[in-house]
Design brief:
This protein is mainly alpha-helical and 117 residues long. The chain has a domain at 43-99: Arc Repressor Mutant, subunit A (Orthogonal Bundle), CATH 1.10.10. Helix content is 56%, strand content 12%. It is built from 6 helices and 3 strands. It has helices at 14-27, 30-40, 46-53, 57-69, 89-104, 109-112; strands at residues 44-45, 73-78, 81-86. Strands 1-3-2 form a 3-stranded antiparallel sheet. A hairpin with a 2-residue loop joins strand 2 (73-78) and strand 3. The N and C termini lie far apart (50 Å).
Length: 117
Amino acid sequence: MARTVSDGGPELPPEVLQRAAATFGLLASTMRLHIVWLLAQGEADVGTLAERTGATLQTVSQHLAKLKLAGLVRSRREGRHHVYLVADPNLVTIVHQMVGQSGAHQPGPERAHGAGA
């Protein structure tokens, strides 16, 4: 029988919490979050991601390697290029919720001026 906390929800095993924390830790990087956000909108190769993020090919490749190692993105070969996509549709939902909530609390352009965004 599963143990529950006082509100009636199930307790989470430490391993589950550790995996979730590791995933959120990877997404705590602005660049990796940006890459996942872009991939949530559709598949892309490294060059496209570098152009859209404003980062170098090497930087994007390094971040993609970490995301791929963690199982958050996967790739497939298309000719001479590797095309990347989000490995789990649930991650897309989480990222949309995180970014959407953050965007909803963002100050308007008149208040953001000079804020170092």
